[in-house]
Every structure is written in C-alpha cells, then in structure tokens.
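Schema walk-through. Below, the input block comes first and the output block second. Nothing else is stored per chain. Lengths vary across the set, and this one has 285 residues.
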Amino acid sequence: MREKLNISKIKEILGESSYIADDNIAMVSFLAIELEKPILIEGPPGTGKTQLSKSLAVALNRDFFRIQCYEGISFEQIVGEWNYQKQLLSLEISKDEKNEELKNDVFKEDFFIKRPLLSAFINNKPSVVLIDEIDKADEEVESFLLEALGEKQVTVNDLGTFNLNNDLIVILTSNNQRQLFDETKDRCLYLYIDYPSFEREVEIIKSQIPSASDKIIKSVVKIVQRIRNLKLAKTPSIRASMDWVNGLMVLNKEELDKDSFEKTLNIAIKNEDDKNKVIENITVK
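--- output ---
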C-alpha cells in the first residue's frame, strides 16, 4: 500500500535525500504520483532536472532506471536485444546433441538482454524511470516511447508483450534541442526548473557541504548569481557553485574575496571569453 503523501511531505522526504525542492517542484512531483502521469522537465543545464528523479527514487524507496538519450539511440538500447552469441552457441549445442527442442528455445527470455525501459516495466517493485534528454532522440524513438507509456506495455518481436508490472514514476527531461510532439507534452505534467533563488541555492549547498560556513557559501552564491545575469557561453551551474565553495575551503579561505575571486574563477567558468567577460563586469570588494 502506497504511503499517504502531501506536498509538505514530498518537500520533507526530498530534503532528507539532500534535494531542496521549492513549492512548484514539490507540487508537480506530488500530482505526478497521485495522478500517475509522467513529468516533462525543462530548464537550463545544471539546475537539478536529472537529480530530481534520482532523489525521488531514494526518497520514496523505489528502484531507479535511466535511459540516457542521444542522437541515433535505438529500440535495442532502450528495450533490449537478443544475445546472438548465446543463441548461436545454444544452436551449436543442439546440433551436436541432435536436440530439436533446444533449437526452438533460442527466442526465450533467457536469451534476451534487457535494457532500462523493459527492466523498469517488469520490475516487481515500485520504480522511477528517467528518460534523460529525450529531445536528443529522433522522432521515431519518441513515438515508440509515447506508445509504450500510453499503453503501459512493451512488445518485443519473437518474445511477446510485457505489461507494466509496478507503480512506475516516469520523468522525461529536455533541453529543447528539438520540439517534442504535442502528444508527448499532453501526456505529461510540465515542470520548468530554473536556476534557484539566492536563499534556495544557499540551502542546496548547505545540504551538500554541511562543513561549509554560511559566510563562504553566501559569498560564492552572491557572485555566481550576478555572473548568471551575464550572457555567457556556459552559465555556471549549481554544481559549479558547490565546486567553488569546496575549492575555497581547500585553500583555507573564509569567503570569496577579490584576491581569491580572480585566482579561483576557473573553477566556475569554463570558457576563456566568459572568464574575461566576468572579470570586466563583476567586481568583488
């Protein structure tokens, strides 16, 4: 029986898993669980889109499966593929032993290598499946995923149809590399995760680096939030803020000051033009 949840409880259990959710994230997560609908998450890189799915799995004590999409990803990488070497070996054995029965056994489940989607569907424990960067997959793959999630079943040629076997939370992320189908959007609850507010980013870093002082965290977040207002090739992520805090701690600094800012800027900025732009536009007292 599923634990009774509410929005406050979602925020609480995510916090215990070191994910600091705002009200919007908690609301959409709660509704997705209650309505049994997928979540489509968009937003800038490094804002916690992927981490939300992992943290929900931990917080709700669910198994986690991930499909990392990329250009050219196929059915085999998502669902599974036949183990041809094992099939051929079995056929050779059956030929040597003149066992006609073994010849018909090579299209059974023992000879099929299961990939994340099928594994998530047939898992006997409530699960979370992340379909990461679905916009990188082609439209044919998106259509297949749409059908599988809609019908709650996956069909494999020569093996049969597998029905969804558990209470599955589905999370899709997109960086808008291409437009997704309207049908995909219609089936999902929509969540946009932007860079966090100053207060939330401080709280996120505290949860990840409990040994860091408030002073050092706030000095870094204050500068990072100003840097994000510049038009850079790569905007610093939340992870970049955490790396910067860790770097300053290694150098025994109490805060991000003018001297340490220029010496450690490369921790957060990954492009020389961006670095020059930051130095020109950001002054640390």
